[in-house]
Amino acid sequence: xxxxxxxxxxxxxxxxxxxxxxxxxxxxxxxxxxxxxxxxxxxxxxxxxxxxxxxxxxxxxxxxxxxxxxxxxxxxxxxxxxxxxxxxxxxxxxxxxxxxxxxxxxxxxxxxxxxxxxxxxxxxxxxxxxxxxxxxxxxxxxxxxxxxxxxxxxxxxxxxxxxxxxxxxxxxxxxxxxxxxxxxxxxxxxxxxxxxxxxxxxxxxxxxxxxxxxxxxxxxxxxxxxxxxxxxxxxxxxxxxxxxxxxxxxxxxxxxxxxxxxxxxxxxxxxxxxxxxxxxxxxxxxxxxxxxxxxxxxxxxxxxxxxxxxxxxxxxxxxxxxxxxxxxxxxxxxxxxxxxxxxxxxxxxxxxxxxxxxxxxxxxxxxxxxxxxxxxxxxxxxxxxxxxxxxxxxxxxxxxxxxxxxxxxxxxxxxxxxxxxxxxxxxxxxxxxxxxxxx
Length: 439
Hints:
The protein has helices spanning 2-9, 27-31, 34-42, 67-87, 112-132, 143-156, 168-171, 182-196, 217-230, 235-238, 351-354, 358-369, 387-391, 394-402, 427-438, and strands at residues 48-51, 90-95, 138-142, 247-250, 256-259, 264-268, 275-279, 286-288, 293-295, 297-301, 304-308, 314-316, 342-349, 374-381, 408-411. The chain is α/β, with parallel strands linked by helices. The strands form five sheets. The chain has a four-stranded antiparallel β-sheet, covered by helices on one side. Strands 1-2-3 form a three-stranded parallel β-sheet, with helices on both faces. A three-stranded antiparallel β-sheet has the order 10-11-12, with no helix packed on it.
C-alpha cells in the first residue's frame, strides 16, 4: 500500500520496498536477530529504515522497569542508529495507534486516547535517543496521531467513534479492534508518505493518486488531509529558518527541548522519559495540552532560535546537548564537577518548609554527598505565607538585600496558591508572580 501511494505521488520515481517482519516482535528482539542485523550491515543500502515496536511496548513509559521497553531503547541506541548512520539512511519510527476501545485495559491502557498519547510519547523518546546518537536523519511517521485526528473529528460531530461502526475511525480497524483494516493500512501508508516526503506534500487530493478500492473518495480525501496535518513537514511551509535547528537542546532549567524533523518542538521530561510534542509555528501561541505549557513567542535570527515558555523559561539555541541535523559535532564531555568549598542556602517559605526541620535534613543530605564542602542553611518561614506576602515583608527583603550573601535562595509558595493557574484573577497568584519578577 505504501509503495502504491508513494509511486502514484512521485511520478518518475521508482519506489522499492522490502521488509523483515515477525508477529508480535519488539524492536529489542529485532536487534537481537543476528541475520537481520547482518543483512542491514552488509547487504543492500536503503534510503529509509522504518522501525515499528510491538503495539503495546511502544507506549510503555521509559524508566519503569519494563525489560522490553528498555531493550527497545538499547536497540535504537546501540544497533539501529549506528546502522542508519553508516548507511546514510533516514531512520523512521512508525508510531502505531491505541486499541479501538478498551482492548488495552489489561495492560493498563484505559481507552484509545490514553493509549495513543502514550505511544506518541514512547516513539518521541525513541526518536530522541536516535538524535543523541548522531542519527540526525530521524523522523516519526505518526500513524497513531492520524488515527487520533480521525477519532477527534468524529467526536466533534457528536459521534461515539469507539462504538459507532459507521464512522471512519471504526473502519480503520480489523474486527479485533487492534490490527488495521484494509482502510486502516491505506491510511497508515498515506501518513508514512507525508512524513517521508514532505517536500512533495500538500493538503489536497489528486484523482491520479492511488486509492485502495475499499476506500471511498471522500474518505481518501479525509485521510489525506489529516495525514498532512499529522506529518512532520509543515514547519517548512511555516518557517524554513527552523530547518537548520533540528536537534536537541538543553535549557537553563535542565529541560531538554527537541526540535523534531522538521515540525515539532518537544519538551522531554527527564524524570519519566516522556516527550510531549508541541506543534510550532513562528510567532504563534501554541498550546501543549498534556503539560498545560504555552509557547508564547518564537523568533529566529541567523543560526539562533528563541522561544518563551509558559513558565517564563526564555531559551535561545544553540546550547547543544546532541548533534543537530545540520551536522554539528557533538560537544566534548563536560569536565568533572567542581566541588565548592562552601555552599549557603536561604529558604523563604511557610510550614511546608518548616515542618520536621526540613532545612537541616537538606543540610545533612548535602553535606554527606559533598565531602569537603561546608553546607550552611538559614530560613525565614511564616505558616501559610504566600510568596507575595514574603515580598511584602520589608525586614526580610532588607535582610536579603543588605545582609549575608547566599549561593541559593529557595522560594516556596503557599501550598494551594502555587497550583492556581496564571491569569485567572486570583490576587494571591498575581501577587506571587509580581513578587518573583519585581522583588
